[in-house]
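Protein modeling request. Please complete all fields; requests missing the sequence field cannot be processed.
Requester role: graduate student
Desired output: 3D structure, token encoding
Chains: 1
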Amino acid sequence: MTTPHPLRVLRLTASPRGAESESLRLSEHILDALSAQSGHRRLELSSVDLNDVPPVDGGYARMLASPRGAGVPHPGDSLHRSDRLIDQLDRADILVIATPMHNYSVPSSLKAWIDHVVRIQRTFESTPEGKRGLLRDRPVYVAVSSGGYISGPRARQPDFLRPYLQAALATVGLNSLHCFTLEGTALGEEVLTEARRRAFTAVSEYFGRSLSQARLPIQG
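Delivered output (220 residues):
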């Protein structure tokens, strides 16, 4: 019997809080659900702490400004780092992003990764109709934590994080994005406990529905 190929999952973690991160905990629940859904295919997980990814440098900026986006990468520079991050993303079957909301949007660590992978002539091209992504689409699951409420009737702050991620990832061809939120982390232990319950339930219900649909018999 042939062993199924593993399901390659790339997880990006953007919180500076490390193991104490609520978005990291939520992403672990997503990984558990993916593992349960994958059946006989084991998950092959690669995790990247985005706090270790420096911003792009002057050479990278000059490359982007050149007419053809040409440049020769050298070990240790931004162009070389960009190539490695793009190759890592392209190998993945599923992308999981664990991120807090910082000042209504993505933290600087996640923005640095986006700046590396959203790259003209490498992950997207410019056409008369607009930008066209060059990467194959794949599922993207985002675990978002926020100190306050960003959705529903109790929301009192803008949310630029989710629409920004949707637009940035769509630029390179990743259109299948689903976000799970854990909201109110700064509002006390009681609110946090309920927020965890609601977020974990949302993950379980989402993947439970997906799993049930995947097992429906084919009619014909």
